[in-house]
Structure formats: structure tokens, C-alpha cells
Amino acid sequence: xxxxxxxxQQRNSIDQLRRQNSLSPQNxxxxxxxxxxxxxxxxxxxxxxxxxAAPLTTQQSRKNTTALDFALERCEEDLxxxxxxxxxxxAVGDVGSTIIWTxxxxxxxxxxxxxxxxxxxxWREELVGTNALALSLKTQKSSCVFSNEHYMESVHDxxxxxxxxxxxxxKQPIGVVDLSTTxxxxxxxxxxxxxxxASIIQSALLEQQRQHLYIRAFSVPQVVFNGKNLVLTPRxxxxxxxxxxxxxxxxxxxxxxxxxxxxxxSIGTLKAEMSQLRDILGGLLGSRxxxxxxxxxxxxxxxxxxLDAGYVSSALQLYTGVFLSxxxxxxxxxxxxxxxxxxxDAIFKAKETDMLLKHLARFPEAxxxxxxxxxxxxxxHPAHQSLIKYQES
Length: 393
What we know:
Elements: H1 4-18, H2 25-31, H3 33-43, H4 67-86, E1 89-93, E2 99-104, H5 109-114, H6 125-128, H7 132-139, E3 143-146, E4 158-166, E5 173-182, H8 190-208, E6 212-216, E7 222-225, E8 228-229, H9 234-245, H10 252-260, H11 267-281, E9 285-286, E10 291-292, E11 295-298, H12 299-308, H13 312-318, H14 330-349, H15 353-362, H16 367-376, H17 384-392
Parallel strand pairs: 6-11
Antiparallel strand pairs: 1-2, 1-5, 3-4, 4-5, 6-7, 7-8, 9-10
């Protein structure tokens, strides 16, 4: 436990660093590189100085109920208990740092409501500056943001501990959990407590996904059913992908057209494929219409949902390769073209250079990222010459 003198000294040290126009490498190291980098991003984000609370979005604007929502239903009492026993407020955010669920202790309820640390509060770094939710998602690591390390003055009396929530199947962050209290109650075990809460949610995810189908269709296609890799043909993976994109189901004729288009493939061939899939999935493949009865998650669905919510960084992170690159299904090809067009449009509107540089490192052929970076980066930036080489190659 820190003494009051320790905490006051820490606040004073941070105040001195905040007054500097730019941080020296030594002072950035003293502050912590992740916080220092976040301060730099916050300074260029054009956040209104008078902003004292996070912007709010309505819960009704969320189109889909996600696996994270279902998991929270299973473990919310455990999480609520943690908040009450520790006199904290606990919040769970989605991949874009928008809070989807909170449980405040009596001590933190009013403070949380004042700054919109409530369901619907948008805590993205570009909207409110440095904060633990956004930092954990940005770094994909646990984080602590103490007192005046926060960008918004209205939360300078807070200390926040956050940890990313990792999906057990995709191994990607699907959200973040945050525990917050007043700075005077700062505790070195706070980050461990946040990690424990993330673990509780991840266990609930595993439990509620017992009948769970996960489809990876970017890069190397793969299907995981109840934690086990299925041995499937490329055609069977295409069928499952079509059904995942059409949760209401398709009759035999529409599924045949979506899969084969105008090619002369008999209905009997498709019936045989469906029979084999039913043997593999048991009673979780419905008929009349054909539909998936298991809980379905997919990397391409998550990328689409991230784009729908405006979370470009998450969408690009999920996009690890071309969607079913060898498919000749007209339905899947059309969907792929639409997704790639949306991604490219988002890239041309993006302002985060570090996000675009990471995307370009994974996909050197991404000319849209090259062109956007050429627009955003100053001519004297070290990466500029490399970008010219990308254009020439």
C-alpha cells in the first residue's frame, strides 16, 4: 500500500512532466512509455479542452448481441461483488472502448455518472485522451492510469486499472475490463484485480460457448467446434461461412445458388455435402431452411461488426489475410469485395498513422495504406522514403 506522501509526490512529479512542451526520452521513460505515447496521441487528437465527460452513445445503437454480452450475463454478480467489496466502479468496454456494462459501488456511483463512466460512455483515446480502457486495448496489455496521467481533468482524482478480455477461440481482444477508484486509494494490486476480473469473464466465455462454432476465414481457413479443430473440405467451410452470414437460414435452392452460382453442379451434390456436415455437427445444423443452431463466431463477422461500430483499428487487426482467397462462390466473392471496399474506404479516412504503419507491415501490397500515409506523414518523417519505395515496387 502506498502512503499518502508517496501518492502526493507521484502527482507532483506528473504535474511537472505535464507542463513540459515535449517529453525528453529520459522523462518519457520515467513516466512510462505507454503513457508518454498516449499523451502524444491525445495532444494531437483535437479533444475540446472543456470536455469533462465522455461522449455518450445509446445502447440501442448496438446492432448485435455479442459473445461478451452473453458471458457478462453469467458472471455479472461475481463482478458486481468485486466492485462493492473494493469500493470501486467496474466497467466492461467493447473493442472500441465504449462501455457496455458497469457496476458502481456506492462510493463511486456519483463520480462515475458525472464523467459518463456508464453504459454508453465512449472512452476512445481520440475522444477523451489518455485512460486505462483505451490504453489496454491499444497495447493489448494490462494498464494503470494514475490520477493526472489522465488527459481529462475531471478524472484527475481517479486511478484506473484495466486488462484486455481475450476471446478463447480467436485469441484476439474482444473487450476490456476496468476497475476504478479515487487516487488516494491507489493500490499496487489494482492491476492484478483487473486481470482477475478479465479471467472471470474469459471463464464465462468458455462456459457459455460449449456449443460453439468458430470460423476463421482470413488467411488459412479453419473451423473450431467446441474447442476442437474440424477436418473439413474447402467447400464445407464455404457452406458454413455462407450460413454464418445468413443466420436466418437458406433453403436448398438459394444455398445452391449462393455456393455454385450458374455452374452446373447437381442439387444432389449439395445434399451430400449437407449430410456430411450434419454428421459432423450433430443436431446443430438445421434444415428447412438450412441454418446453424450453434453459437457462431467468425473472424470475418467480428471484422464487419468492428467496421459497423467505426472501430477501424480492430477491423484491420482481425484482417490477417484475404477472406477465403480460393473460393469461387459468387455470394462469398461479392461479400469479400464489399468488405475490402469498406476497409479501403476506412483506411483513406483514417488519421492514426501508427495503425496504418502496422497494417502496411503485415500487407506490403496495401497501396491504399501507402497513399494515405503519404498524405498524413510530413516529408521529413523517417518512414517517408520507405513509402516511396512501396509506391515504386
